[in-house]
Model the fold of this input.
Amino acid sequence: GAGVSQTPSNKVTEKGKYVELRCDPISGHTALYWYRQSLGQGPEFLIYFQGTGAADDSGLPNDRFFAVRPEGSVSTLKIQRTERGDSAVYLCASSNSRWGGRYTGELFFGEGSRLTVL
Amino acid sequence: DAKTTQPPSMDCAEGRAANLPCNHSTISGNEYVYWYRQIHSQGPQYIIHGLKNNETNEMASLIITEDRKSSTLILPHATLRDTAVYYCIVSSYTGANSKLTFGKGITLSVRP
Done:
């Protein structure tokens, strides 16, 4: 498809389990972002990739959260030992929009992966 | 990123202009103003951005005050499909600061 694709769309897991969430960005987009959104809140930044490397992971809440983008395209967000507080919608966005030689800040978001930890 | 202040909610009648305000009194000279919106159960959608000049595209107009401390997003003819949460964000979006920080936004309700 032409947009950002996220799988699974819904994931229900038990406390303590390991979870992987996948993001397929728009083809050719070099920048990829992960956000998470709790009910009634705006999206919260987690991590940003430029190519294969994590340019900014300052939003990852703790070491249970980890993300990779080994080939500079698909990214996986990994959550170890899930807790009930991890329940949220995890949003992925990609960008490659330039204007006047700089990135424009136009991010293209996927529909999100809703994670529920019981 | 500089912080923004938006009212929590507003409504307008279908077919009328919706004017969404945003205060960003601590904005820096190299920071842009971005607007995104999020329709229920969807990911955020880019609307428009600007630095100091007013901007217009097929979706909306962005009016930035001369001192850049506030801005207004204008949806010229609101429809029911414009009901959404609208986020005003300021960011230099360059180098190490290439990310957007969302607040709670303003919930726009368009009534028939």
The longest strand of chain B covers residues 84-91. Chain B is about 0% helix and 45% strand. Residues 73 and 106 of chain B are 11 Å apart (CA to CA).
